[in-house]
Amino acid sequence: MARYVGPQCRLCRREGEKLFLKGIRCDTVKCAITKRKYPPGQFTWGRGKLSKYGIQFREKQKMKRFYGILERQFRNYFRKAERQKGNTGENLLAMLERRLDNVLCLVSFAGSRKSARQLIRHGHITVNDKKVDIASYLVKVGDVIKPKNTETNLNIVKANIELLKGRNIPAWIEFKAEIPEAVVTQLPAREDISVPVQEQLIVELCSK
Q1: DSSP of the chain
Q2: Which CATH topology does 99-187 take?
Q3: 183-199, pLDDT tens digit by residue?
């Protein structure tokens, strides 16, 4: 009998690459895609070639899963990205990258976006010294993100930072582990975003 690896691990195997949906587990030998790089299920060798629409749809689903957003949220982000100047795909990625739950994950305040959302909803995180309990809050240049100044909150965040200290911090965020604190110094550019998606295919799909 095949060992159950959970729906999130199965998503990574289906896409054929790591989406880092399981936090620190994705960096260990326990990661499902490290063990088995082929998709889950029986008779995977018999699956046909994806159509152009199928490839575009898969990229969109991959982006949604990576950031943990639903279809309605995705559509709202896409409409906002279309109205901005510049490349729509890059605008969309930059907007999603600025979500507060994603930023917490990037700076190791939390091991995954799911656990970051839990920290935010429970009121453990402040932005510019004001409590923010909305995971979709979009950070701006100059924003200072840190845990609420209580012993419990600081211990939770410091433990995560110690556990994930090998994680690379993107260039658009200034991170101070000893405080701990993260400061947004600039908006993310495409080269600062490591999401494994082809955003142009998503734009082509959603623009039809």
Answers
A1: -PPP--HHHHHHHHHTS----SGGGGGSTT-HHHH--SPSSS-GGGPPPPPHHHHHHHHHHHHHHHHT--HHHHHHHHHHHHHSSS-HHHHHHHHHHTBHHHHHHHTTSSSSHHHHHHHHHTT-EEETTEE---TTPBP-TT-EEEE-SSHHHHHHHHHHHHHTTTSPPPTTEEEETTTTEEEE-SPPPGGG------HHHHHHHHT-
A2: 3.10.290
A3: 999 999 999 998 889 99
